[in-house]
Amino acid sequence: MKRSLLLLLLTLLVAVIASLHLGVHVYGPATVWSTFASGGDSMHDIIIRTLRLPRTLNAVLTGAALSLSGLFMQAVTRNPLAEPGLLGVNAGAAFAVAGGLALFGALSITSIGVLAIAGALAAAALVFGLSGALGPETGPTGILLVGVTVAAMLAALTQLILLLDETALETLLFWLSGGFADRPLPLLWIGGGALLIAVAGAAFLAPSIDALRLDDHSASGIGVNVVRTRLVALTLAAVLSAGAVAMSGPVTFIGLIAPHIARRLTAKRPGFAALAVLTMLTGAIIAVFADILARLIVAPGEAPIGAVLAFVGVPFLIHLLRAKRLREVGV
Predict the structure, then answer these.
(1) Is Cytoplasm tagged as a keyword (predicted)?
(2) Cis peptide bond prior to 300, omega within 30° of 0
(3) Which CATH architecture fits 2-8+53-58+68-322?
(4) Per-residue pLDDT band at 13 (split at 50, 70, 90)
Protein backbone atom coordinates (compact mmCIF):
# COMPACT_ATOMS: atom_id res chain seq x y z
CA MET A 1 0.00 0.00 0.00
CA LYS A 2 2.73 2.50 0.96
CA ARG A 3 4.76 1.65 -2.12
CA SER A 4 1.73 2.11 -4.38
CA LEU A 5 0.89 5.42 -2.72
CA LEU A 6 4.44 6.71 -3.16
CA LEU A 7 4.51 5.56 -6.79
CA LEU A 8 1.25 7.36 -7.56
CA LEU A 9 2.36 10.56 -5.83
CA LEU A 10 5.62 10.62 -7.79
CA THR A 11 3.79 9.87 -11.05
CA LEU A 12 1.31 12.67 -10.41
CA LEU A 13 4.17 15.07 -9.68
CA VAL A 14 5.85 14.09 -12.96
CA ALA A 15 2.56 14.52 -14.82
CA VAL A 16 1.96 17.99 -13.37
CA ILE A 17 5.51 19.12 -14.17
CA ALA A 18 5.21 17.73 -17.71
CA SER A 19 1.89 19.54 -18.15
CA LEU A 20 3.57 22.87 -17.38
CA HIS A 21 6.35 22.20 -19.89
CA LEU A 22 4.58 20.58 -22.85
CA GLY A 23 2.21 21.99 -25.43
CA VAL A 24 2.37 23.78 -28.75
CA HIS A 25 5.37 25.57 -27.27
CA VAL A 26 7.74 23.37 -25.26
CA TYR A 27 9.47 25.22 -22.44
CA GLY A 28 12.57 24.14 -20.56
CA PRO A 29 12.78 23.75 -16.77
CA ALA A 30 14.62 27.07 -16.41
CA THR A 31 11.81 28.95 -18.16
CA VAL A 32 9.09 27.34 -16.06
CA TRP A 33 11.03 27.96 -12.85
CA SER A 34 11.62 31.61 -13.68
CA THR A 35 7.91 32.09 -14.40
CA PHE A 36 6.96 31.23 -10.83
CA ALA A 37 10.07 32.64 -9.19
CA SER A 38 10.04 36.08 -10.81
CA GLY A 39 6.35 36.57 -11.64
CA GLY A 40 7.13 38.21 -14.97
CA ASP A 41 4.65 39.22 -17.67
CA SER A 42 6.35 37.94 -20.80
CA MET A 43 4.49 35.73 -23.28
CA HIS A 44 5.78 32.47 -21.84
CA ASP A 45 5.02 33.67 -18.30
CA ILE A 46 1.40 34.33 -19.28
CA ILE A 47 1.04 30.99 -21.05
CA ILE A 48 2.47 28.95 -18.19
CA ARG A 49 0.94 30.82 -15.28
CA THR A 50 -2.51 31.75 -16.62
CA LEU A 51 -3.18 28.93 -19.11
CA ARG A 52 -1.24 25.78 -18.31
CA LEU A 53 -1.33 25.96 -14.52
CA PRO A 54 -5.14 26.44 -14.27
CA ARG A 55 -5.88 23.67 -16.76
CA THR A 56 -3.50 21.35 -14.91
CA LEU A 57 -5.24 22.04 -11.61
CA ASN A 58 -8.57 21.54 -13.34
CA ALA A 59 -7.44 18.15 -14.67
CA VAL A 60 -6.21 17.04 -11.24
CA LEU A 61 -9.46 17.99 -9.49
CA THR A 62 -11.72 16.63 -12.24
CA GLY A 63 -9.82 13.34 -12.45
CA ALA A 64 -9.88 12.87 -8.68
CA ALA A 65 -13.59 13.73 -8.44
CA LEU A 66 -14.74 11.46 -11.28
CA SER A 67 -12.60 8.55 -10.13
CA LEU A 68 -13.94 8.74 -6.56
CA SER A 69 -17.47 9.04 -7.95
CA GLY A 70 -16.93 5.88 -9.98
CA LEU A 71 -15.52 4.07 -6.95
CA PHE A 72 -18.56 4.99 -4.85
CA MET A 73 -20.89 3.68 -7.55
CA GLN A 74 -19.00 0.46 -8.16
CA ALA A 75 -18.72 -0.29 -4.45
CA VAL A 76 -22.33 0.22 -3.38
CA THR A 77 -23.92 -1.32 -6.51
CA ARG A 78 -21.38 -4.17 -6.66
CA ASN A 79 -21.22 -3.47 -10.39
CA PRO A 80 -17.71 -3.13 -11.87
CA LEU A 81 -19.16 -1.31 -14.88
CA ALA A 82 -20.74 1.53 -12.91
CA GLU A 83 -19.41 4.97 -13.88
CA PRO A 84 -20.90 8.50 -13.75
CA GLY A 85 -20.87 8.98 -17.52
CA LEU A 86 -22.34 5.58 -18.29
CA LEU A 87 -25.05 5.97 -15.64
CA GLY A 88 -26.37 9.26 -16.96
CA VAL A 89 -25.11 11.49 -14.15
CA ASN A 90 -22.91 13.60 -16.41
CA ALA A 91 -25.68 13.89 -18.98
CA GLY A 92 -28.12 15.00 -16.28
CA ALA A 93 -25.79 17.75 -15.11
CA ALA A 94 -25.18 18.94 -18.67
CA PHE A 95 -28.91 18.92 -19.46
CA ALA A 96 -29.69 21.00 -16.38
CA VAL A 97 -27.07 23.61 -17.25
CA ALA A 98 -28.20 23.81 -20.89
CA GLY A 99 -31.85 24.07 -19.86
CA GLY A 100 -31.09 26.76 -17.29
CA LEU A 101 -29.18 28.81 -19.83
CA ALA A 102 -31.99 28.54 -22.37
CA LEU A 103 -34.65 29.53 -19.81
CA PHE A 104 -32.85 32.22 -17.83
CA GLY A 105 -30.19 33.54 -20.21
CA ALA A 106 -26.73 34.31 -18.84
CA LEU A 107 -25.83 32.27 -15.77
CA SER A 108 -23.45 33.09 -12.97
CA ILE A 109 -20.74 30.65 -11.98
CA THR A 110 -22.67 29.78 -8.83
CA SER A 111 -25.79 29.10 -10.89
CA ILE A 112 -23.90 26.73 -13.18
CA GLY A 113 -22.67 24.77 -10.17
CA VAL A 114 -26.12 24.61 -8.55
CA LEU A 115 -27.80 23.51 -11.78
CA ALA A 116 -25.14 20.88 -12.46
CA ILE A 117 -25.54 19.41 -8.97
CA ALA A 118 -29.35 19.43 -9.24
CA GLY A 119 -29.25 17.77 -12.68
CA ALA A 120 -26.77 15.13 -11.55
CA LEU A 121 -28.83 14.26 -8.48
CA ALA A 122 -32.04 14.08 -10.51
CA ALA A 123 -30.42 11.83 -13.14
CA ALA A 124 -28.97 9.55 -10.46
CA ALA A 125 -32.37 9.27 -8.76
CA LEU A 126 -34.03 8.46 -12.09
CA VAL A 127 -31.50 5.77 -13.05
CA PHE A 128 -31.44 3.99 -9.72
CA GLY A 129 -35.20 4.35 -9.30
CA LEU A 130 -35.87 2.74 -12.69
CA SER A 131 -33.35 -0.04 -12.13
CA GLY A 132 -34.87 -0.73 -8.72
CA ALA A 133 -38.34 -0.89 -10.24
CA LEU A 134 -37.14 -3.49 -12.75
CA GLY A 135 -36.11 -5.75 -9.89
CA PRO A 136 -33.05 -7.94 -9.28
CA GLU A 137 -33.93 -10.33 -12.11
CA THR A 138 -32.49 -7.89 -14.63
CA GLY A 139 -29.01 -8.97 -13.53
CA PRO A 140 -25.94 -6.93 -12.57
CA THR A 141 -25.81 -5.19 -15.96
CA GLY A 142 -29.40 -3.95 -15.68
CA ILE A 143 -28.42 -0.67 -14.03
CA LEU A 144 -25.86 -0.07 -16.78
CA LEU A 145 -28.50 -0.53 -19.48
CA VAL A 146 -30.87 1.84 -17.70
CA GLY A 147 -28.07 4.37 -17.26
CA VAL A 148 -27.05 4.28 -20.91
CA THR A 149 -30.69 4.73 -21.94
CA VAL A 150 -31.23 7.69 -19.61
CA ALA A 151 -27.91 9.24 -20.68
CA ALA A 152 -28.89 8.95 -24.35
CA MET A 153 -32.29 10.53 -23.66
CA LEU A 154 -30.79 13.45 -21.72
CA ALA A 155 -28.08 13.96 -24.34
CA ALA A 156 -30.73 14.12 -27.06
CA LEU A 157 -32.75 16.65 -25.07
CA THR A 158 -29.61 18.73 -24.52
CA GLN A 159 -28.92 18.75 -28.25
CA LEU A 160 -32.53 19.80 -28.91
CA ILE A 161 -32.15 22.74 -26.53
CA LEU A 162 -28.97 23.82 -28.27
CA LEU A 163 -30.60 23.60 -31.69
CA LEU A 164 -33.55 25.73 -30.57
CA ASP A 165 -31.46 28.33 -28.73
CA GLU A 166 -28.53 29.73 -30.68
CA THR A 167 -27.27 31.70 -27.68
CA ALA A 168 -27.11 28.53 -25.59
CA LEU A 169 -25.38 26.75 -28.47
CA GLU A 170 -22.66 29.39 -28.76
CA THR A 171 -22.15 29.53 -25.00
CA LEU A 172 -22.15 25.83 -24.21
CA LEU A 173 -20.82 24.08 -27.32
CA PHE A 174 -17.20 24.19 -26.18
CA TRP A 175 -18.11 23.43 -22.56
CA LEU A 176 -20.24 20.42 -23.52
CA SER A 177 -17.37 18.90 -25.50
CA GLY A 178 -15.48 18.45 -22.24
CA GLY A 179 -11.99 19.72 -21.55
CA PHE A 180 -9.73 21.37 -19.03
CA ALA A 181 -8.59 24.45 -20.95
CA ASP A 182 -10.06 27.96 -20.78
CA ARG A 183 -12.37 27.23 -17.85
CA PRO A 184 -13.19 29.99 -15.33
CA LEU A 185 -10.99 29.63 -12.27
CA PRO A 186 -13.85 30.18 -9.76
CA LEU A 187 -15.40 26.93 -11.00
CA LEU A 188 -12.46 25.12 -9.41
CA TRP A 189 -13.80 26.18 -6.02
CA ILE A 190 -17.07 24.40 -6.78
CA GLY A 191 -15.36 21.20 -7.86
CA GLY A 192 -12.82 21.40 -5.05
CA GLY A 193 -15.56 21.93 -2.47
CA ALA A 194 -17.50 18.92 -3.79
CA LEU A 195 -14.33 16.83 -3.61
CA LEU A 196 -13.63 17.84 0.00
CA ILE A 197 -17.18 17.00 1.05
CA ALA A 198 -17.00 13.63 -0.68
CA VAL A 199 -13.61 12.78 0.84
CA ALA A 200 -15.01 13.47 4.30
CA GLY A 201 -18.04 11.35 3.42
CA ALA A 202 -15.80 8.53 2.17
CA ALA A 203 -13.91 8.49 5.47
CA PHE A 204 -17.18 8.40 7.41
CA LEU A 205 -18.84 5.73 5.24
CA ALA A 206 -15.77 3.52 4.73
CA PRO A 207 -16.62 0.90 7.40
CA SER A 208 -20.20 0.59 6.13
CA ILE A 209 -19.12 0.34 2.49
CA ASP A 210 -16.56 -2.33 3.43
CA ALA A 211 -19.42 -4.28 5.02
CA LEU A 212 -21.36 -4.09 1.74
CA ARG A 213 -18.78 -6.45 0.24
CA LEU A 214 -20.93 -9.05 1.97
CA ASP A 215 -24.50 -9.57 0.82
CA ASP A 216 -27.13 -7.12 2.04
CA HIS A 217 -28.54 -9.51 4.63
CA SER A 218 -25.12 -10.12 6.22
CA ALA A 219 -24.30 -6.41 6.20
CA SER A 220 -27.61 -5.63 7.93
CA GLY A 221 -26.86 -8.36 10.44
CA ILE A 222 -23.75 -6.56 11.67
CA GLY A 223 -25.58 -3.28 12.11
CA VAL A 224 -25.15 -1.55 8.75
CA ASN A 225 -28.08 0.44 7.41
CA VAL A 226 -27.75 -0.76 3.82
CA VAL A 227 -30.35 1.54 2.27
CA ARG A 228 -29.00 4.66 3.97
CA THR A 229 -25.39 3.79 3.10
CA ARG A 230 -26.26 3.32 -0.56
CA LEU A 231 -28.32 6.51 -0.68
CA VAL A 232 -25.59 8.65 0.90
CA ALA A 233 -22.83 7.10 -1.21
CA LEU A 234 -24.74 7.58 -4.46
CA THR A 235 -25.60 11.15 -3.48
CA LEU A 236 -21.90 11.86 -2.89
CA ALA A 237 -21.10 10.24 -6.25
CA ALA A 238 -23.62 12.50 -7.96
CA VAL A 239 -22.26 15.61 -6.21
CA LEU A 240 -18.71 14.69 -7.28
CA SER A 241 -19.79 14.20 -10.87
CA ALA A 242 -21.72 17.47 -10.81
CA GLY A 243 -18.68 19.35 -9.55
CA ALA A 244 -16.56 17.80 -12.28
CA VAL A 245 -19.11 18.69 -14.97
CA ALA A 246 -19.28 22.26 -13.68
CA MET A 247 -15.49 22.54 -13.98
CA SER A 248 -14.80 20.66 -17.20
CA GLY A 249 -18.03 19.70 -18.91
CA PRO A 250 -19.01 16.05 -19.44
CA VAL A 251 -15.84 13.90 -19.22
CA THR A 252 -16.32 10.15 -19.43
CA PHE A 253 -14.43 6.92 -18.69
CA ILE A 254 -12.15 8.22 -15.90
CA GLY A 255 -14.65 7.03 -13.29
CA LEU A 256 -14.69 3.60 -14.91
CA ILE A 257 -10.97 3.09 -15.43
CA ALA A 258 -9.33 4.58 -12.34
CA PRO A 259 -10.91 2.36 -9.63
CA HIS A 260 -9.94 -0.81 -11.50
CA ILE A 261 -6.35 0.34 -11.98
CA ALA A 262 -6.12 1.35 -8.31
CA ARG A 263 -7.31 -2.11 -7.19
CA ARG A 264 -4.59 -3.75 -9.25
CA LEU A 265 -1.83 -1.66 -7.68
CA THR A 266 -1.93 -3.56 -4.38
CA ALA A 267 -1.47 -7.26 -3.78
CA LYS A 268 -3.84 -7.16 -0.81
CA ARG A 269 -7.44 -6.06 -1.00
CA PRO A 270 -7.43 -2.61 0.65
CA GLY A 271 -10.31 -1.13 2.59
CA PHE A 272 -12.51 1.49 0.99
CA ALA A 273 -10.73 4.45 2.62
CA ALA A 274 -7.29 3.38 1.37
CA LEU A 275 -8.69 2.45 -2.04
CA ALA A 276 -10.33 5.88 -2.31
CA VAL A 277 -6.96 7.60 -1.92
CA LEU A 278 -5.32 5.38 -4.54
CA THR A 279 -8.26 5.85 -6.88
CA MET A 280 -8.24 9.66 -6.67
CA LEU A 281 -4.50 9.79 -7.39
CA THR A 282 -4.94 7.40 -10.31
CA GLY A 283 -7.79 9.44 -11.76
CA ALA A 284 -5.81 12.67 -11.45
CA ILE A 285 -2.85 11.09 -13.26
CA ILE A 286 -5.05 9.79 -16.09
CA ALA A 287 -6.69 13.20 -16.53
CA VAL A 288 -3.39 15.13 -16.63
CA PHE A 289 -1.73 12.76 -19.09
CA ALA A 290 -4.87 12.74 -21.27
CA ASP A 291 -4.78 16.55 -21.30
CA ILE A 292 -1.12 16.50 -22.38
CA LEU A 293 -1.92 14.08 -25.22
CA ALA A 294 -4.86 16.25 -26.30
CA ARG A 295 -2.44 19.14 -26.83
CA LEU A 296 0.18 17.13 -28.71
CA ILE A 297 -1.49 14.60 -31.00
CA VAL A 298 -3.03 17.17 -33.39
CA ALA A 299 -0.74 20.14 -32.65
CA PRO A 300 -1.00 23.04 -33.26
CA GLY A 301 -4.69 22.25 -32.75
CA GLU A 302 -6.15 20.45 -29.74
CA ALA A 303 -8.05 17.17 -29.65
CA PRO A 304 -11.24 16.83 -27.56
CA ILE A 305 -10.40 15.29 -24.21
CA GLY A 306 -13.33 12.90 -24.58
CA ALA A 307 -11.84 11.45 -27.75
CA VAL A 308 -8.47 10.91 -26.06
CA LEU A 309 -10.06 9.15 -23.09
CA ALA A 310 -12.26 7.04 -25.38
CA PHE A 311 -9.17 5.49 -26.98
CA VAL A 312 -8.43 3.95 -23.59
CA GLY A 313 -11.90 3.77 -22.08
CA VAL A 314 -13.73 1.88 -24.84
CA PRO A 315 -11.23 -1.04 -25.05
CA PHE A 316 -11.15 -1.13 -21.24
CA LEU A 317 -14.94 -1.36 -21.09
CA ILE A 318 -14.96 -4.15 -23.67
CA HIS A 319 -12.31 -5.99 -21.64
CA LEU A 320 -14.43 -5.72 -18.48
CA LEU A 321 -17.55 -6.94 -20.28
CA ARG A 322 -15.67 -9.87 -21.79
CA ALA A 323 -14.06 -10.83 -18.48
CA LYS A 324 -17.43 -10.66 -16.74
CA ARG A 325 -19.01 -12.84 -19.43
CA LEU A 326 -16.25 -15.42 -19.11
CA ARG A 327 -16.76 -15.58 -15.33
CA GLU A 328 -20.50 -16.08 -15.79
CA VAL A 329 -20.00 -19.07 -18.13
CA GLY A 330 -17.28 -20.49 -15.92
CA VAL A 331 -14.36 -20.16 -18.35
Answers:
(1) no
(2) yes
(3) Orthogonal Bundle (1.10)
(4) very high
